[in-house]
Amino acid sequence: MKKAPHAIPYQGSKRKLADSILSYMDFEIDTLYEPFAGSGAITLASAINQKAKRFVVADKLEPLAELWKMIVDEPERLIEEYSLYWNGQLEDPAKYFRDVREIYNNTKSPSALLYLVARCVKNAVRFNGSGEFNQGADNRRLGMKPEKLEKEVRAMSRLLKGKISIKGCDFRQAISQATDKDLVYMDPPWQGTSGKRDPRYAYLLNIDELIEELDSLNKREVPFMLSFDGTCGDKSYGSDLPDFLNLKKVLLNAGRSSQATLLGRDDVTIESLYLSPALVKKTKTVSHIKENPQLDLLGVGTT
Ligand SMILES: C[S@@+](CC[C@H](N)C(=O)[O-])C[C@H]1O[C@@H](n2cnc3c(N)ncnc32)[C@H](O)[C@@H]1O
What's the chain's average pLDDT? Predict the structure, then answer.
């Protein structure tokens, strides 16, 4: 598979799993919807590997959606603004980060958000109850260099211009038009890591709303894939989804987590991917794995 460009370094990006996830996209897809976009790893991998004709990405964090629009429609302005921030920080990076954080909280500027995401601890966005960005800087590094960003942003814009619609809205609104000829890929914030005491993303997922929406997609026969819970070493996050949704759970090997590597442990992260009945009907990959169990070794497995 071809390697996709990436302009937004984002914790929780599905970049490493993109090849495994894309292996289930072996049928014709009109529009790929990614309604919990973040950095949109699956949209980008699908676009470069020509897995769908059109794309819809959405995120409830509106400034992030605005950042996507700027990447696609105004790449040169974004590159210029990011470069100003990046170069401006060189004298006193710690203080500069705090100043840009204040600018972002007052203006919701997409380029300021990109600078904060690139510089903050673990590239993990954090917000307080009033929606203000409150994550601290990782002062051991300066964030993606402007020259690298320039390359990634231009490539993303070339890849998606004219083929993508970008929305800052709730996932349900984003996928309301999806049909049986499309595919919806969902990566909501994990249950286990988005509890009140550790609000990882801007919004917490309401599990009942998610289940209701999955049920509605099933009734409309819209093929979908859902990355949901995860297991790392002896820690497990999340729980299974209700049986009536009739989803097929497959396990993906995401390799060693950076945290485990840091602690010198050998834990391998196994992530679950749930396939909808309409998708299982279309993909050849599920039956192919059953016939060829050694494919598990490639990081693709079924339960
Ligand atoms: C786990 S991240 C997605 C990461 C993504 N797969 C990637 O490759 O970068 C989840 C995203 O969902 C967004 N989000 C949370 N609740 C949402 C909702 N109700 N509707 C739409 N987006 C939501 C968050 O802002 C966050 O960016």
Answer: 88
Domain that holds residue 187: 15-60+169-302
Question: Mutate which of 17, 36, 187 to test ligand 1's pocket (most atoms within 8 Å of Cβ)?
Answer: 36
The closest alpha carbon to 156, from 221, 222, 231, 72, belongs to 72
Strand, coil or helix: 290: helix
Structure tokens at 284: 């050849």
Please give the structure tokens belonging to residue 203.
């919004």
What spacing in Å lies between the alpha carbon of 226 and ligand 1's midpoint? 12
Please tell me the total count of domains within the chain. 2
Instruction: Choose one of 42, 56, 203 to mutate for the ligand 1 pocket test, by most ligand atoms within 8 angstroms of C-beta.
Output: 203
- Note whether 214 and 106 are same-domain residues: no
pLDDT in tens, 139-185: 999 999 999 999 999 999 999 999 999 999 999 999 999 999 999 99
| pLDDT for the residue numbered 271 | 85
- pLDDT tens for each residue of 215-238: 999 999 999 999 986 554 444 545
Residues in a beta bridge with 273: 227, 250
Choose the residue to mutate in 32, 113, 201 for probing ligand 1, maximizing ligand atoms within 8 Å of C-beta.
201
| CA distances (Å), origin 289, targets 82, 161, 270, 280 | 45, 35, 17, 12
Atom 4 of ligand 1, residue of closest alpha carbon: 38
Residue 7 lies in a domain: no
Q: Are residues 126 and 198 in the same domain?
A: no
With a cut of 50, list the residues of the chain below it in pLDDT: 192-200, 232-235, 237, 293-294, 296-299, 301-303
- Index of the ligand 1 atom closest to the CA of residue 39: 9
CATH number at residue 146: 1.10.1020.10
